[in-house]
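Lecture 7 notes: from sequence to structure.

We start with a single chain of 410 residues. Read the sequence below before looking at the structure.
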Amino acid sequence: MTELSDSPAAADAVVSSDPRRVLLFRHGCKRGSTSGADAKTLAATLTSDGYLFRVSFLLAPPPASTVLYFDWPGGAPVSNGGYPYVLAAHGDSVLFEVRLLGWSSYRDDDVVHYFLYVAGAARPPSLLQLPAGDIRPTWSSDMKSQQATGLLRRGEDEFLVAQLEVPEVTPRDWAELCVLHPGRGSRWELKRVPIIVVHGDGRGGVGRTMKWWQTDETVPVGDRFLCWVDYLRGFLTCDMAADEANLKLRYVPLPVAPPRGDPSARDGHRPHLKCCRKLGAAGDDAVRLVIVDPPCRCGQPGKSTCARGLFAFTVTTWTLSLCTDGPMAAWVKGVVLDSDELWAFRGYEGLPRVPVEFPVVSSGDPDIVYFVVREDHEGYNSSSDKMVWVIEVDMRTKAVGIGENCPLHF
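Now the structure, written as tokens:
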């Protein structure tokens, strides 16, 4: 598996012995008699406290969503919680957590299990519980640890799980990586890794560049790179195949200017940019960035307030080649797609003419991007008549596909 997002289209992935790619929904669903999950994807394990736990997948071709189903055949350990949440995915492997809720409102007595699912092409799928350790360090909140956790599939039988923490120290010129090699060892290793600014944003070096850093997502690239992304600042890339003594994080700015100062200073809330920006793999050593921007049709900068431009937007793609040493290559601008042009694509007929959201880059073909289109674009309402579509856009052929299980209801 390769990509994850918080939209209904959650992951560009390969699940089961059938090597087709799927969009994996982050939240697991309880297995029922009508779940329809593929029996070939079934895997089970005993948890560390002796409970039988099983998972399987209800497969669907993109742009429809594939769902992870689970059950506790002998009964769940607790009445609260026990639902999987997908943390990371790469190739045919999925990393997810299962949280068993305690009684404290502070959640400090929750029990969290972590599992690695591996589909495998020539053998039955497997499910492995990861050893207890530092995947959720004491200094990191639940949300931060989820976003900063990555999975890297390396070769036939090698996996790597890594979590990043950038401590709030001055200057922020180093970070901690908590690393586990499932199957090769049972111990987590904590590493202090330097942050190298090869070409920063030109405003004060590593200290100024990293001052407001916050990880939004972790992206695997090929079989050696992990990228931790701040969609306001840029991303940190690490060659995980390097000698452990020589691990380093290289800062790469985005091709758009970062905000000045603390982005949450105005109203106390950090902008949520995962709905309009997405970094994904574009081969073994390159990344593709997709940005959805609301341009103005009145000749002024920023979001338009005129009637024609109220729902206008542009989709822009950028590509960057990664390297292990020396100067990083420059971003190369690719497709610039106007909303009017997208709405005129073959296959878009009948869908709302509103901004597309939550892009996901296909790992099999980075020119294919998945988006969410919401009928209720102004907000997620609880009303059941608000519809959501997941669409597949081929940026080359200018065609749109709509998921078979869409429209969806939130």
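The chain has a mean pLDDT of 81. Keep this in mind for problem set 3.
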